[in-house]
């Protein structure tokens, strides 16, 4: 996955998604942390407002003559309400009042209420919570804070006992904290909107980039696959700067490759022509050498016969006839190499066929002190018996002349998956290393007095049957094989 551009871009998209999620989570966490801080600040401000009511109450009680319990209720309520208004007028969002046990609210004020009309009544929905906070403050005789968390807001109620001539009085304040409102919430929404918009644009650009590159690379790949392998196609520009640099480099490489191939074709034709001339030269030199020696011998004998008696003439004529037979045999062997005879394949029983090949060379083997042996691991084959006999005759003659005395030369036929294999094995050291690479070429021989045509005949016979001729470089001695493939059904 990481080895392709597409895979890397997908990984980049995933990392971008993870980074976006992390940044969003961080922003939300900071928002709630800010909300918690605002809640703590509101709680502290509510406590200070409650303390302000306590101070105002002590001031009012200090100015009242006699027992405050004798002050008319209407006058006391008016003074306490003015006290509440004065204590909370500089504290936005905080409402409060004075509560009496068993009686309820004695005074209430919300001087910073944002409505058109002043708010003069305690909120009925919050009466149970306000009463509970005041009762708890009287019970514990200290300032307490009650926090009520709701999905849309957090309600803070602070209450503290009022010590004085009137028993059972408490001061209370109440404020609300809205987490999903205000400047922090607007900043959060703006940040999240900007973040997600940026991510969407980045994802769109990366997706478009990935699809565009994949499409252009696929088009280039298809063009290269559909084109002839001997040359490179001319690719069209893609419009992508980096890809067009690759396209330009491929087009330049294709042009250079075509020019180099044209030069190489011309050079290869020159090399092939030179090799053909060299081959013709080697063959011509071999033929000239093979013909010159008998002609020189016949000329010498003819000159001796002209200056000699009748007995010398008869001997010279016999020698000349022998050389003529040698030249005739050489020509026949040359024709067998150069002329392509039509195959006359037939079913052949191998054991009698191998025995006939052995018997034809029995006298030559006996003269060289060599024993000929044949064996067959297959019953029959399908081939041209005359051509194969000529090929095996050349292999057997070479083996008889190369084998040391008192050893065996083995002619063997055995089946293999690649075809029917005729092998000729002798105990000799084999041809010299210097001639092994061209061993089956005409006039290449490693034996003194050899014409170098025998193995080339073997190769031509094998090629005519669609097979091969080879020298095995393993084991003791020398083994040549003639491989004839099985006929197609």
From TrEMBL:
It catalyses: ATP + protein L-histidine = ADP + protein N-phospho-L-histidine. It is found in: Cell membrane. It comes from the Bacteria. One of its GO terms (cellular component) is plasma membrane. Its EC number is 2.7.13.3. It is an enzyme of class 2 (transferase). Its main location: membrane. The chain crosses the membrane at residues 187-211. Keywords: Cell membrane, Coiled coil, Kinase, Membrane, Phosphoprotein, Signal, Transferase, Transmembrane, Transmembrane helix, Two-component regulatory system, Virulence. Residues 1-23 form the signal peptide. The keyword Signal applies. Pfam families: HATPase_c, HisKA. One of its GO terms (molecular function) is phosphorelay sensor kinase activity. InterPro entries: 2C_sensor_his_kinase, HATPase_C_sf, HATPase_dom, His_kinase_dom, HisK_dim/P_dom, HisK_dim/P_sf, Sig_transdc_His_kin-like_C. Residues 286-488 form the Histidine kinase domain. Residues 250-277 form a coiled coil. This is histidine kinase. It comes from Methylacidimicrobium tartarophylax. The gene is zraS.
């Amino acid at each position: 996955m990481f080895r392709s551009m597409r895979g890397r871009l997908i990984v980049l998209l995933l990392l971008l998604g993870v980074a976006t999620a992390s940044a969003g989570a961080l922003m939300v966490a900071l928002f709630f942390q800010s909300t918690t801080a605002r809640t703590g600040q509101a709680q502290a401000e509510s406590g200070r407002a409650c303390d302000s009511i306590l101070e105002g109450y002590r001031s009012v009680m200090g100015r009242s003559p006699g027992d405050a319990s004798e002050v008319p209720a209407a006058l006391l309520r008016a003074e306490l309400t003015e006290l509440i208004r004065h204590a909370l007028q500089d504290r936005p969002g905080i409402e409060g009042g004075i509560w009496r046990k068993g009686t309820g609210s004695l005074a209430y004020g919300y001087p910073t209420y944002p409505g058109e009309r002043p708010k003069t009544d305690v909120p009925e929905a919050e009466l149970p919570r306000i009463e509970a906070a005041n009762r708890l403050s009287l019970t514990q005789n200290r300032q307490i804070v009650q926090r009520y968390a709701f999905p849309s807001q957090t309600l803070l109620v602070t209450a503290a006992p009022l010590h004085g001539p009137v028993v059972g009085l408490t001061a209370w304040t109440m404020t609300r904290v809205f987490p999903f409102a205000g400047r922090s919430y607007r900043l959060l929404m703006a940040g999240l909107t900007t973040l997600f918009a940026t991510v969407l644009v980045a994802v769109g650009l990366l997706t478009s980039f990935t699809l565009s590159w994949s499409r252009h690379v696929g088009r280039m790949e298809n063009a290269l696959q559909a084109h002839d392998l001997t040359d490179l196609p001319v690719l069209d520009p893609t419009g992508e700067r980096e890809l067009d640099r690759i396209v330009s480099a491929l087009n330049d490489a294709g042009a250079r490759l075509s020019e180099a191939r044209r030069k190489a074709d011309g050079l290869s034709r020159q090399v092939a022509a030179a090799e053909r001339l060299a081959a013709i030269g080697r063959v011509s030199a071999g033929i000239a050498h093979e013909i010159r020696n008998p002609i020189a011998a016949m000329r010498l004998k003819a000159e001796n016969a002209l200056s000699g008696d009748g007995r010398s003439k008869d001997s010279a004529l016999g020698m000349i006839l022998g050389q003529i037979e040698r030249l005739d045999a050489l020509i026949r062997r040359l024709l067998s190499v150069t002329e392509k005879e039509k195959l006359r394949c037939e079913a052949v029983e191998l054991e009698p066929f191998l025995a006939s090949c052995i018997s034809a060379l029995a006298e030559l083997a006996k003269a060289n002190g060599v024993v000929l042996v044949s064996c067959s691991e297959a019953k029959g084959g399908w081939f041209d018996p005359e051509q194969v006999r000529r090929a095996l005759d050349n292999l057997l003659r070479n083996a008889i002349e190369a084998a040391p005395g008192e050893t065996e030369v083995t002619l063997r036929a055995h089946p293999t998956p690649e075809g029917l294999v005729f092998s000729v094995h002798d105990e000799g050291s084999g041809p010299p290393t210097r001639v092994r690479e061209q061993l089956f070429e005409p006039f290449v021989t490693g034996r003194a007095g050899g014409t170098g045509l025998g193995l080339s005949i073997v190769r031509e016979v094998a090629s005519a049957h669609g097979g091969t001729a080879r020298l095995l470089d393993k084991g003791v001695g020398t083994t040549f094989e003639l491989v004839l493939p099985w006929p197609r059904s």
